[in-house]
Amino acid sequence: MSFKAAAIQMCSGVDPVKNAAAMARLAREAAAEGAIYVQTPEMTGMLQRDRAAARAVLADEAHDIIVKTGSELAAELGIHVHVGSTAIALADGKIANRGFLFGPDGRILNRYDKIHMFDVDLDNGESWRESAAYTAGSEARVLSLPFAEMGFTICYDVRFPTLFRAQAIAGAEVMTVPAAFTKQTGEAHWEILLRARAIENGVFVIAAAQAGRHEDGRETFGHSMIIDPWGTVLASAGATGEAIIVAEIDPSAVKTAHDKIPNLRNGREFSVEKIAGAVAGGVAA
């Protein structure tokens, strides 16, 4: 069964209440365009580099305004609302970068905690240590929905193809990649990574992104995308500002792609042996 999916592009600020209102407005617009699945970006609720200021407004899952708004929107609109992620306060004082999928009755159908932490040192002094504040997840799931089998990742996870491959082998037809990619890494790798994950697994990829210059001073790449199993970009947004992109998703296209390039079936186990390089007089034994 084909369905309309939407990716919402946002420029989240430091106030979760304002971000919740923006999410609600955009989700309603997406639903009005016929989308029955709506995805928001990573860190929908707040982008705040000042950790003390962020902790001052963080809430646990039961009291988080983004969780509450996502549930209410799903029930109001009768659709699946996927909060790509938001920061959730944990009992041990750390934070979860957690995504939520809400069903049409408002219930939480799935939670996903980002597995791979963005600990990097980039050019021009840009440095990030996500693991200093966040607790990494350790569990991936493929969720059976009325319209598709769906897998879940968040942002930096896109650089770890084994996560996508494991979910594709488990039956995922649609992989989700909500993100807040930096402008620097986005310009270099965003589209090619998303298309590669779609092509090598023969799946749809839906990636809602943060976009533009944020209140905390960071700049994110935008270019939210929906990509088909052959690697074709079905819909994309610009580099800055809010946007809604919508595309028709036909899960039968996944089988077609797998029939053409059956690499999931053809994969074989193998070992890797590290050996010494060439030496004078011949090759090392």
Features:
alpha+beta; Nitrilase/N-carbamoyl-D-aminoacid amidohydrolase; 6-stranded mixed beta sheet; globular; Nit1/2_C-N_Hydrolase; C-N_Hydrolase; hydrolase activity, acting on carbon-nitrogen (but not peptide) bonds, in linear amides; hydrolase; Carbon-nitrogen hydrolase family protein
General description of the model:
There is one protein chain. The protein has 285 residues and is α+β, with helices and mostly antiparallel strands. Helices cover 27% and strands 27% of the residues. It contains seven helices and 18 strands. The chain has a six-stranded mixed beta sheet. Strands 8-9-10-11-14-15 form a six-stranded mixed beta sheet, covered by helices on one side. The chain has a two-stranded antiparallel ribbon with strand order 6-7. Helix 1 (16-32) packs parallel to helix 3 (65-77). 43% of the residues are buried. Keywords: Hydrolase. Belongs to the carbon-nitrogen hydrolase superfamily. NIT1/NIT2 family.
SSE run: EHEHHEEEEEEEHEHEEEEEEHHEE
CA-based shape = globular
Proportion of beta-strand residues:
25-35%
Number of E-type strands: 18
How many helical stretches?
Answer: 7
CATH architecture: 4-Layer Sandwich
| CATH homologous superfamily designation | Carbon-nitrogen hydrolase
| Proportion of residues in helical segments | 25-40%
Strand arrangement within the widest β-sheet reads 5-4-3-2-1-16
Helix-strand makeup class:
alpha+beta
What's the CATH topology label? Nitrilase/N-carbamoyl-D-aminoacid amidohydrolase
Over the alpha carbons, how many angstroms does the gyration radius reach?
Answer: 20 Å
Domain unit count: 1
